[in-house]
Design brief:
EC 6.3.5.2; 10 helices; ligase; alpha/beta; GMP Synthetase, Chain A, domain 3; ATP-binding; five-stranded parallel β-sheet; purine biosynthesis; binds xanthosine-5'-monophosphate; about 325 residues
Length: about 325
């Protein structure tokens, strides 16, 4: 019968069988899929697993800290933490086109990941949080280069935008027969913190596609502060688990404001909050005015550089969930 416990012990047995006494690496992103993958692998093979967490400087406030607290201190898992914030932000200088941002971030991720993996000695396996829906989507892809073990199934919408072929790693995909809800159940069963298991989706390119136009350290700083306030208020209103995504966007528009006796010229922050089943369509949430009011007044009071807040009331289609 299907219980999270059975599924977990099944997956653990399979991992042991596939991996033997080989070494495995796994990229942790902070998302639920990679978290559950890592937790399963850790249960199955302990120290034969090393996880790599790349801080790309595009993460939410405290995200890097949270991942380290859960996996290294909480689980005792081998975690290689790479702070590559400066590299990513440097590479993004002058880049304004959304798809170019994604490409730059994807390429830089591979470089950083490869460098980190090289330092680990002999590695034979790469663990990935591929889910059943990803497997169906990528069965017999038209553009899969022959002979490349890694090419076809890499999740295009994930941090791991594709890995170098010369790494020649075999894939370990313990979630490939599971749906998202089942993954969450397994995650709870393995003792992962509920706020990690029920985290809203967060795009691989992170805050870079929520800073409209050029990404700079200052803008990332502003957006991180706005984002924190949005999540804090949405959680405070008990809405976090009831919406698909809720977040802030830092527009590249500046408007005039007034603070005390001074005229300000600050950025416009947009709030996005949507319901959705599968991200293909989405509707904007009719947030209570009080929640909107608190978010707005906190942002303009607490985040220097932002002096105006607007709410996005566009559905998908024709809008997308993200702004870029
Ligand atoms: P859109 O904006 O296309 O987003 O309506 C649909 C869902 O996908 C997420 N998203 C991404 N996730 N890398 C990701 O990992 C990306 O480049 C990316 N772009 C959008 C978005 O957050 C939403 O959940």
């Amino acid at each position: 019968s299907w219980t999270p416990g059975n599924v977990a012990s099944d997956a653990i047995a399979r991992i042991r069988e596939q991996v033997g006494d080989g070494s495995v690496i796994c990229a942790l992103s902070g998302g639920v899929d990679s978290a559950v993958t890592a937790a399963l692998l850790h249960r199955a093979i302990g120290d034969q697993l090393t996880c790599i967490f790349v801080n790309n400087g595009l993460l939410r406030l405290e995200e890097a800290e949270r991942v380290q607290a859960t996996f290294r201190r909480g689980m005792g898992l081998n975690l290689s933490y790479v702070d590559a914030s400066e590299r990513f932000v440097t590479r993004l200088a002058g880049v304004t086109d959304p798809e170019t941002k994604r490409k730059v971030i994807g390429e830089e991720f591979i470089r950083v990941f490869e460098e980190a993996a090289t330092g680990l000695g002999e590695v034979e396996f790469l663990a990935q949080g591929t889910l059943y829906p990803d497997v169906i989507e990528s069965e017999a892809p038209a553009n899969a280069p022959a002979g490349s073990a890694l090419s076809a199934r890499i999740k295009t919408h994930h941090n791991v935008g594709g890995l170098p072929e010369n790494m020649k790693l075999q894939l370990v995909e313990p979630l490939r027969y599971l749906f998202k809800d089942e993954v969450r159940d397994v995650g709870l069963e393995l003792g992962l913190p509920p706020d990690m298991v029920y985290r809203q989706p967060f795009p691989g390119p992170g805050l870079a596609i929520r800073v409209i136009g050029e990404v700079t350290l200052e803008k990332l700083e502003m957006l991180r502060a706005c984002d924190w306030i949005v999540i804090d208020e949405i959680k405070g209103a008990d809405l976090y688990d009831r919406v698909w995504q809720s977040f802030a966007v830092l527009s590249d528009s500046r408007t005039v404001g007034v603070q005390g006796d001074y005229r300000t010229y600050g950025y416009v922050c947009a709030i996005r909050c949507v319901t959705s089943e599968d991200a293909m369509t989405a509707d904007w949430v009719r947030l209570p005015y009080e929640v909107l009011a608190r978010i707005s007044s906190r942002i303009v009071n607490e985040v220097p550089g932002v002096n105006r807040v607007v709410y996005d009331i566009t559905s998908k289609p024709p809008g997308t969930i993200e702004w870029e």
